[in-house]
Amino acid sequence: MPSYTIKHITRYSYAAEVVDGANQIMLYPLPDERLQVARHEVCVSSDSGNRFSPAIDTYVDAFGNTVGVFTVLEPHTVLVIESSADVTTHPIQFPMDEEPAAQQWQDLRSRQLDPAFIDFLALEDFKSLADVKTTLSQLTSEAEKPLKNALVLSEYVFEHFNYRQGVTNIETPVEEIWQLKAGVCQDFAHILQALLRQIGIPARYISGYVCPKKEEGEAEVRGIGATHAWVEAYIPFYGWLGLDPTNNTIVNDGHVRMAIGRNFPDCTPVKGTYKGIGTHKLHVSVQIDFAAPVQAEAPTLAPAPVYAVPDPEMPANSFRLYQEQQQRHQQQQQQQ
Questions:
Q1: Model's pTM, two decimal places?
Q2: Spatial distance between the Cα atoms of 244 and 98, rounded to a whole number of angstroms
């Protein structure tokens, strides 16, 4: 059960003063059976001198995410949003995957019109769809169970797409990602999500953090130092299972969820509008450290009376004691 301290800082620098900023944040870790949130604080500041964490209003959206909203009415050229959290993660229970493949695929087909899954089965239409379907026909088969197919597709994305920063942005469509065969975590998640939905497996987009590994010699984790993204696939008779194609791994106790949605726009960590010049710079930093073990506090002792203990007497000399006994014995004999 590793514990982490997560510090997420978002800084906007505007070319000139802006006013009437309305902002939305999705920076709240999602507690569940495998994530315990011991502490979480969000603080907003600007060069107008305001620092107002209590002014952030929150609500829960349709996907169960906590969303914060706030405004900055005063003129400002800098806006800083600081999120700090202490969390403990727990390992998942992996699917037993015992039911026959045909029964599992039938379960998925029965959910095609289920309102709980419709959003996560929506298909994307793009020019390379025929090429995508050809690839899927070579990689997947209903003779295999949905979990096996999902793992194959996650591995395919990991091996055939280059992890490269700066070639895409948050608005890059799946068609362009497919052609580039490159991108970062949100692009890998976008592609895997599209592939899973094409074969009838519900898939949802997850925004959060990937944490560093403590053991030396383990493979480097992609996505550290920024927000991360991965996919959750619905596995029949099990539930939602996280798949991280950027690192070719099943999501376990090294990932922390912040938001769940149909795609990236549903999970955007920070977004907003303001009045003023559009030119600005955005700097985001994420620092994740292993938290120190919590030391158990010493038990509180009930009040008790205090006694003064005198110094002990020096022990008597045994030879002198013998002489005194002999003298008393002689005196008793003389008196008789």
A1: 0.83
A2: 23
| φ, ψ for residue 317, nearest 5 deg | -70, 125
Measured CA angle at 157 (ends 151, 162), to 5 deg: 150
Q: Give the separation between CA 191 and CA 276, rounded to whole angstroms.
A: 36
- List, for residues 109-121, the tens digit of each pLDDT value: 999 999 999 999 9
- Residue 124 is encoded by which pair of tokens? 């994307």
Per DSSP, 51 falls in state B
Distance CA 258, CA 42 (A): 14
Asked whether 3 and 291 are in contact (CB, 8 A), the reply is yes
User: How far apart (Å, rounded) are the C-alpha atoms in residues 236 and 153?
Assistant: 17
Sign of the Cα pseudo-torsion (216, 220, 223, 226, in order): positive
Closest CA to 197 of 112, 94, 259: 112
CB atoms under 10 Å from CB of 25, counted, come to 24
Q: Is 98 helix (H, G, I), strand (E, B) or coil?
A: coil
Residue 287, strand partner residues: 7
Does the pLDDT at position 296 exceed 70? no
Q: Where are the beta strands (DSSP E) in the chain?
A: 3-25, 35-46, 57-60, 66-72, 76-89, 162-163, 182-183, 203-210, 228-235, 239-244, 249-250, 255-261, 270-275, 280-290
Structure tokens at 202: 């519900």
pLDDT of 307 strictly over 70:
no
Q: How far apart are CA 73 and CA 20, in angstroms?
A: 4
